[in-house]
Amino acid sequence: MQNFEFLLRAAVFKSTSALVAFLLQQAADQIDASYQPKPREQFKARVPVKVDCIFGSFQLSRAYYYHPGKKEGHYPADSALGLENGNTPALARLVCLEGADENSYEKAELHLRETGGIAFSARQIQRLVQHIGPDAQNWQQREALQPLPEAKPAPAFYIEADASGVPMRAEELEGRPGKQPDGSAKTRMAYLGCVFTQQKTNEDGSPLRDHDSTTYVSSFESIDEFGPMLRQEAIRRGLPLAMAAILLIDGAAGLANMGRICFPTAIQIVDFYHALEHAGKVLLVLLGSKEHPEYKKRLGRWARLLLRDGVENLIGQARRECKDQPRKREAMEKELHYFVENVPRMQYGTFRSKGYFIGSGVVEAGCKTVIGARCKQSGMFWGEKGAENILAFRCINASRNLDVFWKERLNAHAAENDPLPLAA
Fold first, then answer.
1. 183, 145, 189, 200: which is closest to 166 by C-alpha?
2. Is 282 exposed, middle or buried (0-12, 13-18, 19+ CB in 10 A)?
3. Is the pLDDT of residue 373 over 60?
4. CA distances for 164 relative to 64, 150, 190, angstroms
5. Which residues, 6 or more positions from 416, have their beta carbon under 8 angstroms from its beta carbon?
């Protein structure tokens, strides 16, 4: 029975491939017949090409033009049909999705073969992803002139950002400082940002994230480049329409500065989990060990204190306890610096009373699922561009924007056939 199913599928694919080949050849002939060459473009010949589609392969004949001034050629049918290195748009989309979604190119190859009977090697998948990937990254960074038509006013509009280290090949890390004992680096930081909205709270007053409202952007550029990119995404999603904008970060100085520059009107909130984590570090200075019988009790009390807008009381308590212990005082001030710098961002009681989130769990989860699940598997070492291209596709997919990206890409290809405007 299994062999019969494979034979039946092969027969269906073969007949479908023949039909697709016939229809695309007819379309290519019509495109070539109606094409208006650009100034100085010269028709050279009709050139055959092997085209791969979901149902198999076939040969397509199409016209070739050459521009001697620009020293570049052009195939009008390829642009109009949206061919990607000899692959149909549907196949290119599927291959890029599998290459980015599976945890390795080899797994993507297996999945394509077993579920669709598509023979596309891991190396071919990688090449296609790297061919289209830079355009996917540029698409993430496109300028936003105004909110998208589907953007709606939201009582609370959230922006979150974080960074995650991606293991890199040695040549990508030359001369870069890091946290290794010898001062070298093993990873490059990939920034991930997300935007989502909140319309209401539940019966307990806890905030509820709007279903399917989260979109992501990623970049290996510096925070100075990433901040404006995240702002563009926020504008597209409706930042100008929001009643309140909230920037949730981990308290790092770079992200806080990004907030001041790119989101000057946003309410900045330091993630409560990170605040509690730093409170634990302060207690370690005071008590000496997490095994101290008072450690958990005091950490719980400080958690409740922070939730009552008591960050300044926490600072005061810690300083009073070590005022007569000079050796501890310096270490204490070093740990308290995190709280001193973030007092306005740690008014958790006030934030909760307004129904806002105080945790950056959305972007933290994104770092694990969008970045970690694909780029931080055992034995992986990336080139920067290779990882950046993969993450661009993963962000577009996680943001439910695949249809929009591929539609705009097809339109951009088709626009290559538009004749240049003639000078008056």
1. 189
2. buried
3. yes
4. 46, 31, 5
5. 74, 79
Q: Phi and psi (nearest 5°) for 150?
A: -80, -5
Whether 8 shows a pLDDT value over 60: the answer reads no
DSSP 366-382: HIIIIIIHHHSSTT--B
> What is the domain partition of the chain in residue ranges?
22-140, 156-271+359-375, 274-344
Q: How many residues does the chain have?
A: 424
Structure tokens at 220: 């290996």
Burial of 333 (0-12, 13-18, 19+ CB in 10 A): middle
Identity of the amino acid at 262: C
Q: Is residue 31's pLDDT more than 90?
A: yes
| CA 370/CA 392 separation, integer angstroms | 10
Least confident span in 105-109, 115-119, 389-393: 115-119
Strand pairing category for 245-249 and 156-167: parallel
Q: Which of helix, strand or coil describes residue 412?
A: helix
Q: Are 157 and 355 in contact (CB under 8 A)?
A: no
Calculate the alpha carbon distances from 84 to 28, 36, 379, 413 in Å: 15, 22, 31, 10
For residue 406, count CB atoms less than 10 angstroms from its CB and return exposed for 0-12, middle for 13-18, buried for 19 or more: buried
**Which residues are CB-contacts of 197 (< 8 A; sequence separation ≥ 6)?**
152, 154, 156, 157, 158, 209, 210, 213, 237, 238, 242
How many alpha carbons fall within 13 Å on the CB side of residue 200? 4
